[in-house]
Amino acid sequence: MRGYFGIGVEGVSKPMNLGALLRSAHAFGASFAFTVGAAFDARAVGRADTSDSSANLPLHAFADVDALVLPLGCRLVGVELLDEAIALPSFRHPPRAAYVLGAERAQLSPALLERCDFVVRIPTKFCLNLAVAGALVMYDRMLGLGRFAERPVRPGGPPDLPPPPRHGEPIWKKKQRRREKNGPLAAPGAAAPLATARRAP
Predict the structure, then answer these.
(1) What domains can be seen in the chain, in order of their start residue?
(2) How far, in Å, CA of 28 to CA of 7, rounded?
(3) Which of 16, 22, 37, 61 has the fewest CB atoms within 10 Å, counting from its CB?
């Protein structure tokens, strides 16, 4: 899967949910995780994070929305149950994205919503648990950007897995073959030899 992604939360009321979110982020191959304006007990987070993601996944703690810094070209995607938000099954994930969720007892702040390039919603009747919502977003990203066989028409799985991706040979090998076939290339800026003109007898 090309690109990268990170996931974070604004504010935290239950550190165990943050630990479960970090564990899921580690499992789905997130490049980083972050919190915005959150204070939490690291021990309580660690009790839910049984994969020890803190040793494998960078966690950035930003004091507030103004302090939030993302890599260049990274799109911020808010996850919020708003009528005007894009339904997650209809959303095309950016290759480089950071997803941010609100705390369990609060929505994303207006300041953070303004920073978002996109806002998506999980089409449910009511709000989900923070860790569950984050896992669904990451799973949907994997489905949208991953490389899987098409679902069959009938119930069950595909009979065959998709073929492995084919990569071209290194560029230097192509250049070497071209030199062997056509001879050495002229130096950059060198004038091409003039053809000798023939006159009719």
Answers:
(1) 4-145 (3.40.1280.10)
(2) 11
(3) 61
